[in-house]
Structure formats: structure tokens, C-alpha cells
Amino acid sequence: MQAPKKKVLLKIIILGDTGVGKTSLMNRFVNQKFTATYKATIGADFLTKEVTVNGQRVTMQIWDTAGQERFQSLGVAFYRGADACVLVYDVNQPKSFDDLESWSQELIVQACPQSHETFPFVCLGNKVDKAGPNRAVPKKKAKTWCDSKSMPHFETSAKEATNVDEAFRKVAEIALLQEQQNDDPVYLPETIEMGGDNAEGGCPC
């Protein structure tokens, strides 16, 4: 009788400017909920969700941080051990797209991944439900940038649940693949307690 596969823990970081919908995307994926009331994230926050990727049980620990510059001092403790990064911009705010380059560099500098070139990123253009015919960030422009970095790109709406599940499952897929290639995945014991669904504060070091 074949032993069941152990669960793998993947630490996912969400980065992007304030107000692009990082927290809303996380809550939509994990809790299937959306609130129109905006509340800026202070410090760091994480939620967990278990998914199955190619037959492997995976626990995604998804970390959300405030986008304001004054909170970027979270530094190494926040980024350490990240297995993948979700870059989020608002399709209606061109600056939020332009800032993705600096956010990706911030991750590389702080997390110091084994390989800068192959670290898994996924890019989400959020709030497509609000995009009109003269949208600020054309899909073609965003996709061209993502393609140049071999980065999957999704256009999402946390409000309408558009492509949210698909995007986060892609994150899990490429993060798991990277872990397997590095040959050192972090396994969870079957009795682990992940804490509350909405734990706050510093990350485990």
C-alpha cells in the first residue's frame, strides 16, 4: 500500500501598491468573500489554504503586506523563505503597473532566493470590473512585460471572482515545481496547527 503524500508548505508573498486589491484577492481566494469597504493593511497579515496540485497536497501560506512605502521596512523577516511572489497592479492605475519592477526587485533583494532568474512570479492586473474602454493599462502592454520576464499574467476581479482561483492555483503550481527542482520542499507534519485564519504580526523565522 502506497503511503500518502505529505503536505508541502508554500510561502506566497503578495506585493503591489496600496489600494490595488491585494487583501481583497487573498480573501476572495481563501474565504470566497469580498468586501467593498477599504481598509489599509497595517504591517503584515497571512491566510492559509490547502489545495491539490498535480496530486500533491499543498498548504499555501499567503502573506499580504501594506503597499505604503513606510511599511516596506518589514524587510528580511517578512520575505525570508518565500517560495513565490504575486505582483498586483490596478488596471486603472498606470503607476501601480509601473511600480511592479521595483516591487519585484525588492523581493529579490530581501528574500535572496537561490536563483534570481527562476524565482516564481505571477502578475495580476486587478479590478477589471471597473475598467472602461479607455483603460489605463492595456492588457497587451502588461502581457508584453510579463512575457519578457517569463511571468504568467492574469487579469482579475476580486469583486466578481474573475480568474482569482485560476491565478492562485498557477502560483501554487509553479512554486511547487520550483521547490521540487530545488529538491528541498518544506513538509508539514500531519498534526500541525497553522493558527487562526487571520494571524497578524511578524513571520516565523
TrEMBL record:
Q: Which GO terms describe its molecular function?
A: GTP binding; GTPase activity
SUPFAM superfamilies membership: P-loop containing nucleoside triphosphate hydrolases
What domain of life does the native source organism fall in? Eukaryota
Query: Cross-referenced InterPro entries, in alphabetical order?
Result: P-loop_NTPase (IPR027417), Small_GTP-bd (IPR005225), Small_GTPase (IPR001806)
Keywords assigned by UniProt? GTP-binding, Lipoprotein, Nucleotide-binding, Prenylation
CDD domains according to UniProt: Rab7
The record ties this protein, via NCBIfam families, to: small_GTP
Q: Which family does it belong to?
A: Belongs to the small GTPase superfamily. Rab family.
Protein name stated in the entry: Small GTPase superfamily
Species whose genome carries this gene = Carpediemonas membranifera
Q: What is the lineage of its organism?
A: Eukaryota, Metamonada, Carpediemonas-like organisms, Carpediemonas
